[in-house]
Amino acid sequence: MKAIDLVKWFGPEEIRTYAVREVSFEAYYGEMLYITGPSGSGKTTLLSMISGILRPNSGTVVVEGKEIWKMTPNELADFRLNTVGFVFQDYNLFPKLTTVENVALPLILKRQNWDEAIRQALEVLDIVGIRNRAELSPSKLSGGEQQRVALARAIVGRPDLLIFDEPTASLDGPTGKKIIGFIRENLLNEHRCILIVTHDARIFEFADRNLKMEDGRIVEIVSGGVS
Amino acid sequence: MKGILKVAFKLLVNDRGKFVALLVGITFAVFLIVQLTSVFAGILTKASATIINIGAPVWVMDPAVNNPLNSIQVPDYLLDRVRSIDGVNYAVPLYSGVALVKLQDGFYQPCTILGLDDSSLVGRPKLIEGNIEDIFAENGFIVVKDSEFHKLENPTLGTTFEINDHRAVVIGIAEVTSSTLFGIPTLYTTFSRAIQYIPSPRFTIAYILVEPKSGKDIPRIKEEVAKAGYLALTDQEFQQRVSNYYKYQTGVGTNILIMTMTSFLVGLSICGQTFYTFVLENLSKFGALKAIGAKSYELIAMILFQTLFTGLTGYGLGVGFSSLLIALAKRRISSYAADITFYNLGLAFVLVLIISAISSFIAVRKVIKVEPFDIFRG
Questions:
Q1: What angle do CA A212, A216, A220 make, to 5 degrees?
Q2: Would the pLDDT of B163 be above 60?
Q3: Based on the domain organization, do B158 and B303 belong to the same domain?
Q4: Scanning every residue of chain A, which has its alpha carbon at the shortest distance from the alpha carbon of B284?
Q5: Domains of chain A by range and CATH?
C-alpha cells in the first residue's frame, strides 16, 4: 500500500485547516504499522484516506497497484468490503443484533447466504475466544469482549488490510496488551498488513514500524517498538 | 439483498419499544381512517338506499333534487312526454313521501311510503313473506324488513296500521339491499293507493323511472328531458349526485375529511418522530456499515423495508380492529351506518404508504448524509 503526497484540509479558504500535509509512505504485507502522535496531528484523517473513507484534496493511495481514489463510489465500497477490515474506537456494534450476527455483517453485505455467514462468524468468534457469547447482545459483553467482537467482524471477510482506530482506548493496560498481542500473534501474516492508530505508549512494543505524526506531517519513522 | 433485509428486520423488531410505538401509531391512524371513511361510506349508501332498492336504470326528476327522499313532484304530463321519447322502452311514475303511521298501540311512527306503478310494479322489493299480487287487494302494503322494522312493532302478515285514518294491512314482508339513512321504516304500496292515503300537492309523481331500449339511448333521453326543463340521470349519476350533496353541501364530507386528515397527521407524527429517533440512535452504526462497505442503496433498502414492514403490519392491524369494531357495532346496532369498501381500504393504504414514504425520506436523508469519517472521529 502506497500513500503518495496525501493532503487534506477542512473548512473554507480563509479559515482553512490542514489536517494532513503531503504525507507519503508505504506499508507492506506482514507488517504491523503504527501511526502515532498527539491529538489533532492528523492520524485519523490519514487512516481514513488510506482506507477509502475520506477523499484527499490531493495525492493518492495505491493498494495492490490500484489507485483507490480513481474508483467510483460503489467500487470504493466494494474495495472497503473486500480489502479492508475496520475496528472502530467505539466498536459500533449493533446492540439489537446478537454478537454472531454483528460479526456476520460483512459477509451478509457480500451477499453470502445467511446460515453460511453465521457459520463462518461462529468460527471467527472461536478464534477470538468468545464463541460462548455468540447469542448474547454486544451490550451484555465487557469492554474487552466487545473489542474482540469488533475484531472478529473486521477479520471475518479475510481482508488484506486491517485498520484499528485507538484499539486500546477504552481498555485497561493488561487487557489492551493482551488484545494487541493476540492480534500480532494470530492475525498478522504474509498476506495481511495491519495499521493501528494509537497514542497508547503501552502497546508500542508490538509495532514493526511507527510513523510519528505532528501537525499533519510524518516527522519520524521508527522501526521496531518505540516508546 | 435478502440477508441485508433480514438484518433490517431484526434491527427493527428487536427494538421492541420503538417497534411497538411505530405499530401503535400506524394502527391507530389506519383504524381511525378506516372507521371514519367507512361511516361516511355507510351514510352515502344509506342516503342512496331508495335508488339502489328501486333499481331503475334512469331517473327523471326536478333539477333541484339532490336527495331521493326529498323529492320535488313533477307534473303528470312529463310522464307522457318521457314515454314519447325515442329510445324509451317504458316509463313509469314513482311516488315517494313520508307519512305518520298509527300503530296498534296508538303510537305514531313516521315512515317512508313508496308508491309503485299500479300496472307494472316496477321497483318492487323482493318478498320474503306474502304474495306480490296481494298488493292490489284492499289496503295492501308491503313492509321492508330492515334495521327499522322493529319500529313498526315487528308486524306480520295481516297486521293493520292507520295512515291518515285509512286502514293499511300488511300483505307482504320484503327485504331490500340497503336500509335508509333517516332511521324510519319503509312501506311499499301502489302509486294510486299512495296518493289516495297521503295528502299530496297538485303534482303527485316524485320520479319517473325509465327503462331505455339500450344504453345508447340514454344521452338522447337526457337531452329531451332537459329540453322539458327537467333532469334525467342514470342510477349511478343519481347516487353520485347524492354523494356530492352530502360531501360538499352538508358539511359531513368536510368534517370527515378533516378528521381523516387529522388521523393521518397523528399517524405521520408518531411514526415520523419514532422512526427518526430510531435512525438517530443507530446513525453511528449505519455510518459504520457504510465504512465497512455497505452501499447507499443498500442502506436505503434497509430503511424502506423497515418502514414498509411497519406500515403494512400496522395497516393490517388497523383494518382488522376497524372491521372487528364495525362488525360488533352492527350486531348491537342494526342501523349502524358503516361500510368498509375497497375505496376506504385503498385510501387508508395510500395514506399508510405516504406515512411510510415520509418517515423513510426523513430517515434516508439522515443516513445518506452520515459520513463514515465521522465514525472514525467519534
A1: 25
A2: yes
A3: no
A4: A92
A5: 2-223 (3.40.50.300)
Predicted local distance difference test score (pLDDT) of residue A38: 87
CA B65 to chain centroid: 20
Q: Is pLDDT at B215 greater than 80 in this prediction?
A: yes
For residue B338, give Cα distances in angstroms to A54, B67, B114, B181, B320.
59, 19, 25, 11, 15
The total of structural domains in chain B comes to 2
Domain boundary among B194, B229, B264: B229
CA A193 to chain centroid: 10
| A86 contacts in chain B (CB < 8 Å) | 288, 291-292
Closest residue, chain B, to A197 (C-alpha): B376
Q: Report the half-sphere exposure of B245 (CA within 13 A, side-chain side).
A: 18
Query: Is the CB of A113 less than 8 angstroms away from the CB of B3?
Result: yes
Nearest-5° angle of CA B58, CA B61, CA B67? 95
| Residues B80 and B202 both lie in one domain | yes
Tell me which residue in A80, A88, A114 faces B6 most closely, judged by beta carbons: A114
Residue B56 lies in a domain: no
Contacts B372 to A, Cβ<8 Å: 48, 53
Tell which phi-psi region holds residue B70, choosing left (phi > 0), alpha (psi between -120 and 50) or beta.
beta
**Does any CB of chain A come closer than 8 Å to the CB of residue B7?**
yes
Q: Report the predicted TM-score, pTM, of the whole model to 2 decimal places.
A: 0.76
| Claim to verify: residue B207 and residue B271 sit in the same structural domain | no
Q: Which three cell numbers stand for residue B264?
A: 393521518
pLDDT for residue B376 is more than 70: no
Q: What is the ipTM of this complex?
A: 0.82
- Domain residue limits at B297: 2-46+251-377
**Domain match, B266 and B356 both:** yes
Provide, as residue numbers in chain A, all residues whose Cβ is less than 8 Å from the Cβ of B291. Answer: 51, 53, 80, 86, 88
CB contacts of B16 in chain A (<8 Å) are: none
Same domain, B216 and B312: no
Cα(A169)–Cα(B322) distance, integer angstroms: 55
- Report the mean per-residue pLDDT for chain B: 89
User: CA–CA separation, A105 vs A113, rounded Å?
Assistant: 11
CA distance, residue B250 to nearest chain A CA (Å): 52
Do B373 and A88 lie within an 8 Å CB cutoff? Answer: no
Task: Render each residue's pLDDT in chain A as its tens digit; 227 residues.
Answer: 899 999 999 888 888 888 999 999 998 888 999 999 888 888 888 888 988 888 999 999 998 888 999 998 888 889 988 898 888 877 888 888 999 999 999 999 999 999 999 999 999 898 888 889 899 999 999 888 888 898 889 888 888 888 888 887 777 777 778 888 888 887 787 788 999 988 888 888 888 899 999 888 988 888 875 44
* Within-domain flag for B66: no
The answer as to whether B236 is a domain residue is: no
List the single residue in B with minimal CA-CA distance to A166: B376
Q: Which residue of B has its CA nearest to A159?
A: B292
**B375 part of contact set with chain A, CB < 8 Å:** yes
* Interface-testing mutation among A72, A83, A94, with chain B (most B C-beta atoms within 10 A): A94
Residue type at A215 in one-letter notation: D
* B378 — pLDDT class (breaks 50, 70, 90): low
